[in-house]
Design a protein that fits this description.
This protein is an alpha/beta fold and 251 residues long. The protein has a single domain, classed as 3-Layer(aba) Sandwich (Rossmann fold). 45% of the residues lie in helices and 15% in strands. Strand 1, helix 1 (13-24) and strand 2 form a beta-alpha-beta unit. Helix 1 (13-24) packs across helix 8, helix 3 packs parallel to helix 4 and helix 4 runs parallel beside helix 5 (151-171). The longest helix is centred in the middle third of the chain and has 29 residues, at 101-129. The mean pLDDT is 97. The chain binds nicotinamide-adenine-dinucleotide.
């Protein structure tokens, strides 16, 4: 039976790579991005692959009206949602002592509240469908190790990892699995704006390079697939070994 996947923040970067991988593996795709042009371009690009059906819904994935619209579109076009990827996330950099309330609230709104309420809406739908489902959150290595100027972002990513764990209690009895991927440095539009990004991360990553979006998408597709049917409440870190080590006293 063909599965239907809803993926947020998928106009480019990691979300788009996950959408492409799920499409290649046989899912129909509803992809979301807050940028209309990116949504349209991503739908056109994926449609050219000639695999399953791909539709788009542009808008802020943390906005309750957009959440409703995404679910309506999925039901109207495909009649179901089987896979949800809460990937939309924002980073607002700033040192802790000067960090503003407005930036903090916006990071929490998109990363935490957006993930929480979209998952709630889709889990309610999955419950009514009575056939289970698979949900995936996109966290970050910053939920595990300290990074400069990312206190609010790190906190929001650690929060969604705990949300996935907590929801096992309510969702496992419904046959819904829920996991998290935590990418390390990944070559996407947001990071490659820094021309030194790849070289810098290649030096400090045990596997000697940052991730490609396809590396993250492969892990995402595994956790969403039936191959991972006994895995729930877990976080998979994909970082080339970066969080496995500590600074060497001999470096
Ligand atoms: N790139 C990395 O190194 C890295 C590392 C760890 C975690 N992540 C996480 O991976 C996810 C994707 O990151 P990326 O690097 O691909 O980002 P990106 O900025 O390249 O792309 C993310 C897309 O999400 C969209 N978006 C942002 N806020 C949105 C919202 N509220 N609603 C709908 N769409 C929204 C943006 O328009 C953009 O097209 C994010 O959650 C990010 O925190 C990225």
């Amino acid at each position: 039976m063909t599965k239907v996947a809803l993926i947020t923040g998928a106009g480019q970067g990691i979300g788009l790579a996950i959408a492409r991988k799920l499409l290649e593996e046989g899912s129909h795709i509803l992809l979301n991005d807050r940028e209309k042009s990116l949504t349209q371009e991503a739908v056109a690009q994926l449609s050219r692959l000639g695999k399953g059906s791909v539709i788009g819904c542009s808008g802020d994935a943390a906005d309750p009206e957009v959440i409703e619209e995404m679910l309506d579109l999925a039901i109207k076009n495909f009649g179901t949602i089987d896979q949800l990827v809460c990937n939309a996330g924002i980073t607002l950099f700033g040192n802790f002592l000067d960090y503003g309330r407005e930036d903090f609230m916006e990071v929490a709104r998109v990363n935490q509240s957006g993930t929480f309420f979209l998952t709630q809406a889709v889990a309610r739908l999955m419950k009514s469908q009575e056939k289970g489902g698979a949900i995936l959150f996109t966290s970050s290595v910053t939920a595990h190790q300290s990074h400069e100027n990312l206190a609010a972002y790190a906190m929001s990513k650690a929060a969604i990892e705990m949300l996935a764990k907590n929801l096992v209690l309510e969702l496992a009895p419904l046959g819904i699995r829920i996991n998290t991927i935590a990418p390390g440095a990944t070559l996407t539009e947001r990071t490659t704006s820094d021309p030194n990004y790849a070289a810098t991360w290649s030096k400090i990553t045990p596997l000697a390079r940052p991730a490609f979006p396809e590396d993250i998408a492969a892990a995402a597709a595994f956790l969403l697939s039936d191959t991972a049917r006994h895995i729930t409440g877990q976080t998979l870190i994909i970082d080339g070994g970066w969080t496995a080590i500590s600074p060497s006293p001999y470096a």
